[in-house]
Amino acid sequence: MEGGEGEEKKQQLVEGEKGGEEERPSRLKPPALGTNPWLVYSHGKRYRNQSFYDVSGGSYHLKSIPEMRNKLIWNCSYGWLILLHASKNATLSKTECDCSLLNPISMQNIKLPRMTNVVTSYVLLSRPPSDPNCYVICFPKSKQCVMFCKVGDVEWIEQELQDLGLRPDEEDYLGCVGTYDGQIHMLRSEKLFLVEIEDYHVTCTDLQIETPFKPQLRSCLDHVKSMVESSGELFLIFLFVFGRYFYHFEIMKLDSENKKWVSVQNLKDRAIFINLYGGPIASISTKEFSGLKENTIYFTSPEDRFLYHYNLEVKRVVICMPCPNVTQNWYQPMWFFP
């Protein structure tokens, strides 16, 4: 589908209208989100409930927001939740499902095209939805393509990797995706690419960065990569899994001038937030939030309801249960950054 046909595939965004917020009982509205980082759980029968945990303040709030019922949080981007509409036993590998965007502060709700062949993916916004050049971009981990759409489109567009100049073979794999300097970056087969999209066409530029050194650690069962921008710099984070509750982190920073990754031993007054397998990540100054621990990585796992803190100086994991009310039918918690 060509970009010139864009007007033919627009639909009315009736869900984007607001109204009646003042009449809602507090249980049906999100908490006062402010600027704090939040951890959000969807849980209960058909995911009717949401628990919001204020990581800085240490409190949690039980809600049942109509716009979030029966939905799974796929990701958070530019202060918007990207939601998948759940059916019974729904997962992110479901064959087909509806998608939407929700701003938990303004409560604006925007319908997205139905997605078929949904697979475990990285998904994010290229820009805020108010920008006419905003695209929702999906990077499937097990498909050799990029999927995208604009707000108002009635279908997703797939662009094959071979059309992007990438080699779709067994040695090609998706490491992670993140934003840096307002642009999307992708680590694929240990190569760093700049991903740009314009007029319904994606381009990927190999930035010719030296392959990052990955430590070879014995007894490591798995490792996960994440990218995050912090204080105007791009960081690559390796999380090594040795077993349940046994983790180790290695961090590298992009040296753009010399086109290589360099090791980082201390985050100083920064805290980084990641999910163990996919999902949003961000970096926040602990000077602005007294309840956060400096030089610490906060992360979650899809296997449990815990919140993990990993201090880079002592190299030790601390585990807490942020929302003890979440006891059944819960889905992987996701970070939300207003």
UniProtKB/TrEMBL annotation:
<protein>
    <recommendedName>
        <fullName>KIB1-4 beta-propeller domain-containing protein</fullName>
    </recommendedName>
</protein>
<dbReference type="Pfam" id="PF03478">
    <property type="entry name" value="Beta-prop_KIB1-4"/>
</dbReference>
<feature type="region of interest" description="Disordered">
    <location>
        <begin position="1"/>
        <end position="31"/>
    </location>
</feature>
<dbReference type="InterPro" id="IPR005174">
    <property type="entry name" value="KIB1-4_b-propeller"/>
</dbReference>
<feature type="domain" description="KIB1-4 beta-propeller">
    <location>
        <begin position="52"/>
        <end position="304"/>
    </location>
</feature>
<feature type="compositionally biased region" description="Basic and acidic residues">
    <location>
        <begin position="1"/>
        <end position="26"/>
    </location>
</feature>
